[in-house]
Amino acid sequence: MQIVIVGKERGRASELDQALSDFGLDWNARWLEDAATLLDNGATAVEAIDVVVCEMQAGDRRGTEVLAALRERHPEAVRILLLDDGQDADALRSMASAHRLLRQPLDAGELIEAVESVVELRELLDNPVLKEAVGRIESLPPPPKLYLDLTQLLRDPETSSAEVAELLSQDPVLAAKMLRLCNSAYFSAGRVVTDIRAAVTRLGLQNTQQLVLATEAFGTPAEVDGIDREAMQARALRTSRLAAQILGGSSAELAATAGLLAEVGRLLPGMRSTLPDGTEQNPEGPHFAEAGAYLLGLWGLPMPIVEAVANHHQPGRMRMSGFWVAGAVHVAAALVADTPVDEAYLRSVGQIDKLPKWRLLGAQLSEAA
C-alpha cells in the first residue's frame, strides 16, 4: 500500500510509522511538503499511489486543486482531504475532488482506519477498470456529510430530537427537502409539518437518518441522461423500508441503508445500466451496482452495505453463504421495481417459502405510498 501525504504534517511521520509497526502493516508512507513533486515534475514523478492525503493548503496550491489534478494522473488513487476546524464550507464547495475527509492534525489511527477500509473495498471489488472509471468522474457525488455527522451523534443513546433538528438545520436546503419528504403521502399522517424538529419527532430518529442519507445521495450535482431522480428516490425509500422488514432483527438497519442506496450507481455517468425499454446504456462501462458500491466504500460506509449494493442484482455472487443483507435488498429491490426475483438463489439459501409473504409486504407498502 503506497500512501503519499502532502503538507506540513511531516512531523507526524514517526507517529504514523510507529502505529504501522504496532499494527503489523507493511505500508509505505511518503511525505511531501508541497505538491510540486506530484504535479510539476510530470505524471510519473510518483509511479504508484494507492492513497493520497492532502492538506487544504499544500504549499502554494489549494489541496482541492491538487486532488483534482491527481484525479486525471492517478484516477485509481483514493483521495483524502485534511481539514482544520472551520474549513467545512471551503471543502464542501470542492468535494468533487475528494473521496474522504479527515481532521487535521493528522491522527495515525484515523488514517489507518480509513486506509484499511480501502484495502477491504479493493479486495471485494478488485476491478481496475471500475476503479479508474469511478476515479475519473469529475462530478463525483460528495460524501453525505450530514448523514455521517448524524450517525456520529446518534451513537449517544441520550441524543434528543432537538439535537438532531439543530444539526439538520445547519443545511437549509436539506432541511427543506426533508420537510417535503416528511409531508409526502409516504410519510404523512395527515397533519402538515412545517418545522424540522416536528419532522424529526414524527419520523423518529431512524427514519430521519435514512431520509437524510436519501436526500444527500440523490441530490448530487452529476447529470446523467435518462435518470428521473424523484422516481428513483421514491423507489429507494420503498426498497429501504421493505428490506428492513424482510430481514428484521439487529441487521434491519443495515438492510434499510443498503436498500436505500442500491441504485445510487445509476447517478454516475458512463456506467452500464438497463433502461426501462430493456436496452443497455453504456454496455462497455462497469455495472452501476458495482460502481455505486465502490463509491459507498470510498465514502466509508460499512462493508456489509457496500457488499450488498454491489451484489443486490446478483445475490448468488455473495462471498458469504446464507441469506443476509444482500438477499433482503435483492428481494426488496425486485419487488419494488417489479422485476424478477432470483428464486433459484432463494431456494439455495432456504428462503423460497417466505417469498409470498414478502410479496404481500411489498404490495402493502406500494398501496401506502
From TrEMBL:
Response regulatory domain sequence ranges: 2-119
All copies of domain HDOD, residue ranges: 140-315
InterPro entries linked: CheY-like_superfamily, HDOD, RNase_Y/CdgJ, Sig_transdc_resp-reg_put, Sig_transdc_resp-reg_receiver
Entry superkingdom: Bacteria
SUPFAM superfamilies cross-referenced by the UniProt entry: CheY-like, HD-domain/PDEase-like
Name recorded for this polypeptide: HDOD domain-containing protein
Organism of derivation: Novilysobacter luteus
